[in-house]
Specification:
Oligomer: single chain
Largest sheet: 4 strands, antiparallel
Mean pLDDT: 91
Distance between the termini: 17 Å
Bound molecules: ligand 2BA
Shape: elongated
Structural class: alpha+beta
């Protein structure tokens, strides 16, 4: 079995969730915050049999899209003041960032 830890853009969350439920997959959603943009995203924990891994990845590809966002990045020595100063910068935000881990054992009680 594999555990997918998928950080999802919150704008894609609802569609992916519906597709996973429709596909009969089990998962847990955790509210999370991107370390760089400090914006809310959603982290999904998806336990999946190896045979279903590619099907899940296809669903994630189908429902999660990369977007460009313009952010103001303050110089490091001014960050403490939380002032809206800094250079506008365009970043491409996934989509999804997916980590795939081997699961040693699963116990359902
Ligand atoms: P954030 O950390 O808020 O990052 C949002 C986007 O900002 C990133 O998109 C990337 O394009 C850019 N970015 C992040 N750190 C940067 C840096 N030091 N310099 C320049 N640009 C930077 P994605 O790579 O698609 O990541 C989307 C979200 O996925 C991230 O939100 C974070 O919550 C998560 N994530 C990405 N890589 C991760 C990793 N290696 N470990 C844990 N979480 C990760």
């Amino acid at each position: 079995m594999k555990l997918l830890i998928a950080v999802i853009n919150r704008r894609d969350d609802r569609h992916l969730r519906d597709a996973l439920i429709e596909g009969g997959f089990r998962f847990t959603e955790v509210s999370s915050t991107g370390g760089f943009l400090r914006e809310g995203n959603v982290t999904m924990l998806i336990g999946v049999e190896e045979a279903d891994l590619e099907r899940i990845l296809s669903l994630i590809r189908e429902h999660c899209h990369a977007r460009e966002e313009v952010v103001n990045v303050a110089p490091p020595d001014t960050r403490l003041y939380a002032a809206p100063i800094g250079e506008p910068m365009t970043v491409q935000v996934g989509g999804a960032q997916v980590f795939i881990l081997d699961v040693e054992r699963v116990v359902r009680i």
